[in-house]
Design brief:
Elements: H1 7-10, H2 16-28, H3 38-45, H4 49-56, E1 101-102, E2 116-119, E3 124-128, E4 133-135, E5 155-156, E6 160-161, E7 168-170, E8 175-176, E9 182-183, E10 190-192
Parallel strand pairs: 1-2, 5-8, 6-9, 7-10
Antiparallel strand pairs: 2-3, 3-4
């Protein structure tokens, strides 16, 4: 391999003779083209790195930050792909959704409207409407395919305010524990049958 004199290595500008010697040395150290494949020769002939990326079929992938891409399972790019925690996990493709489960005390500290979970204290699904948590589903039940009965508890153990402009219905007898308040706004009704 020939020695090439550089300005940074020499510490001063190159003389005309040194520049000519560099070209001569480079020319004499050319790779023997008979040992290079056609594909390899095409890379050598590429004018710049961009052309070499095109020859290799890399496009912009070789110069794009790796964080801009995602795995095949996530999607085409990281910023548009599903990220961990963005999707509800499933037990299988046709199985069940794995819904967050916890006690009343384990509810989100600052919930947003649309939050949905299973409350293990009351064994019911619940959702947050932007103001309060409420039971979801659990309509009428009965024997076999009957949907006749809607059951309610008999003791109010937590303060409760009926939504403004809404009415409530319970079947009794109903006991409201000492120190507990059920608030019925003006224009609303709580009917106990």
């Amino acid at each position: 391999m020939a020695t090439i004199v550089t300005r940074s290595g020499k510490g001063s500008p190159l003389t005309n003779a040194e520049v000519d010697a560099n070209f001569t040395n480079l020319n004499s150290d050319k790779v023997e083209t008979s040992t290079i494949s056609v594909f390899g020769a095409s890379l050598i002939d590429d004018a710049d790195a961009s052309a070499a990326r095109t020859t290799l079929g890399l496009g912009t992938a070789a110069t794009t930050d790796s964080t801009a891409y995602a795995t095949a399972a996530q999607g085409s790019t990281a910023d548009s792909a599903l990220q961990p925690g963005d999707a509800v996990p499933q037990t299988s493709a046709t199985g069940s959704a794995d819904i967050p489960t916890g006690t009343t005390a384990e509810r989100d500290g600052s919930p947003s409207a649309g939050y949905f979970r299973f409350n293990s204290d009351v064994t019911k699904f619940e959702g947050y409407n932007g103001t309060s948590w409420g039971s979801v589903g659990g309509g009428a039940t009965g024997g076999g395919s009957d949907e006749i009965f809607i059951e309610n508890g008999q003791t109010v153990t937590t303060n409760y305010t009926i939504s403004s402009g809404k009415n409530a219905l319970s079947t009794g007898p109903i006991t409201v524990n000492s120190g507990i308040t059920v608030t019925v706004p003006s224009g609303s009704n709580w009917v106990i049958l």
